[in-house]
What does this fold into?
Amino acid sequence: MNTSSLDASPHVLQWLPAQGAPAQLFVLLHGVGSSAANMAPLAQWLQAQFPQAAILAPDGFDAFDYDPSGQARQWFSLKEVTEDNRPARVAAVLPRLLAWLTEAQQHFGIDPQATALVGFSQGAILSMALVHEHDGAAGRVLAFAGRYAKLPDTAPQLTTFHLFHGSADATIPVQHARAAIERLAALGGDATIDIVQDAGHEINGALLNSALFRLRSHIPQRTWRAALGAAQAQNATDPDLH
It folds into this structure.
C-alpha cells in the first residue's frame, strides 16, 4: 500500500500486484464522514482474492461538514439534504469523479469493462449514479448499503450492478435496495441483489462472501448477448448449419 501519484483527489491509497501489470481495477469509494484509510480492510480482502488487480481508494473530494479537523471526508454535503436536493448534489460531483476514474484507468492501462466500482453508503450512491450518467464507465458496480439518489428512468446496458444490503440497516433502509432492483429489472438492466438478515449499515463477512460469489460466477448479460449475436451470425452465414 502506498500513496498514488494520481492528483485529482486529495489523497489516494493503492494496492498493486506484487509482480506484473494489473489485469483489472477496483475503485473503493468510502461512506460519508469516513476516508480512504477506512477502506483498507476491504482492499486487503480484495487483494487476497484478486492478486493481479490494482485497487485504489481515494478520499472524498471535500472535507466532511461536521469534522473541523478536516480528516473525515465526504462526496457531497448532508447539510439540509432532502429527497429533492440530493440528486443535484450527487450530479455535481460526477464530472470530477469521472475525470479521476478515467485518469486512473489510463494510468494503469485498464479498460473500463475490467473496472469495478465498489462503494459503501455515500460511495455506493456515487458509484450507481456515475454509471447511469456514463454507461460503461465501469463494467461492474458493487453497491454496499447504498441507494439511488433518484430512481432511474433508464438502465445502463454496459454495466452490471451487484447490490448488497443488511436487512437491519437503519441508516439506508433495505427498502431502497429492493426498490432499485425492481426498477432495474423493469428497465431491462443487469443486476443482482443479496440481502443479509440482521446485518446493519456495514460490510460484514456474509456480504463479502456474497460479493465474491457474484464477482466469480455472474456472467454479464452483455456477454450473453454478444455470444448469442455471434452464434446467430454464424448460423446465417455457414451453409453446413442449414
